[in-house]
């Protein structure tokens, strides 16, 4: 699944208390990515998305714009990590004949580094532009919440 440039990604951190493997209550801060129109909407969407999963109080902190031009999600069970991939597009300037390089960040959901490269290449298969992978790094992002229009937002057809 690929998303387009219509998304406005924000990364926000959720701080809450959870029970660790030793049975101790510990405070954790986990990053999440959300598609929103503003910082305010990003905070509201994070609260809405996380409320069912966290018992007790939690706070949203450190909301920042996340510059991803594309996102390749996977529904495979083993693909439980998110990788930030820096791509360099190579285009030819028609007037001067010189190579022009521009970089973009893409987010890929995969099981490991090899799987991330594979899924990135699969996602980019339809692209006409030449590109190079400059870097791939695993992120700490726990989950991604793209915007999905609610079913009750659709106008109902008149009978």
Global geometry: elongated
One letter per element, helices H and strands E, the order comes to EEEHEEEEHEE
Counted up, domains total 1
Could you tell me the radius of gyration in angstroms?
19 Å
Determine the fraction of residues in helical runs and give it as a percent range. Answer: 10-25%
Report the sheet with the most strands, covering strand number, pairing sense and barrel closure. Answer: 5 strands, mixed
**What is the spatial order of strands in the main beta sheet?**
1-5-7-6-8
Distance between the termini: 35 Å
Low-confidence stretches: 1-5, 151-159
Please count the helical segments.
2
Tally the beta strands. 9
Strand content: 35-45%
Mean pLDDT: 88
Structural class comes to: mainly beta
Overview of this protein structure:
The protein is elongated. The strands form 2 sheets. It has a 5-stranded mixed beta sheet. Mean pLDDT is 88; it is low at 1-5 and 151-159. It has one domain (2-146). The protein is built from 2 helices and 9 strands. It has 159 residues and is mainly beta.
Short note summarizing the structure:
This protein is mainly β and 159 residues long. The protein is 14% helix and 44% strand. The protein has helices at residues 39-50, 113-123; strands spanning 2-3, 9-19, 25-35, 58-65, 70-72, 81-92, 99-110, 130-138, 144-145.
Write the layout of secondary structure elements.
Elements (H helix, E strand, L loop, with lengths): L1 E2 L5 E11 L5 E11 L3 H12 L7 E8 L4 E3 L8 E12 L6 E12 L2 H11 L6 E9 L5 E2 L14
Parallel strand pairs: 3-9, 5-7
Antiparallel strand pairs: 1-5, 2-3, 2-4, 6-7, 6-8
């Amino acid at each position: 699944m690929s998303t387009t440039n219509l998304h406005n990604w924000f990364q926000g951190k959720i701080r809450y208390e959870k029970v660790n493997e030793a049975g101790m209550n510990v405070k954790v801060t986990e990053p999440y990515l959300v598609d929103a129109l503003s910082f305010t909407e990003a905070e509201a969407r994070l609260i809405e998305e996380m409320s069912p999963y966290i018992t007790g109080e939690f706070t949203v902190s450190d909301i920042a714009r996340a510059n991803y031009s594309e996102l390749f999600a996977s529904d495979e069970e083993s693909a439980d990590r998110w990788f930030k991939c820096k791509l360099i597009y190579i285009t030819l300037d028609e007037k001067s004949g010189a190579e022009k390089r521009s970089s973009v960040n893409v987010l890929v959901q995969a099981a490991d580094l090899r799987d991330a490269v594979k899924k990135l290449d699969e996602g980019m298969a339809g692209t006409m532009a030449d590109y190079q992978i400059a870097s791939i790094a695993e992120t700490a992002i726990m989950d991604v919440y793209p915007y999905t229009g609610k079913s009750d937002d659709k106008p109902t057809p008149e009978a």
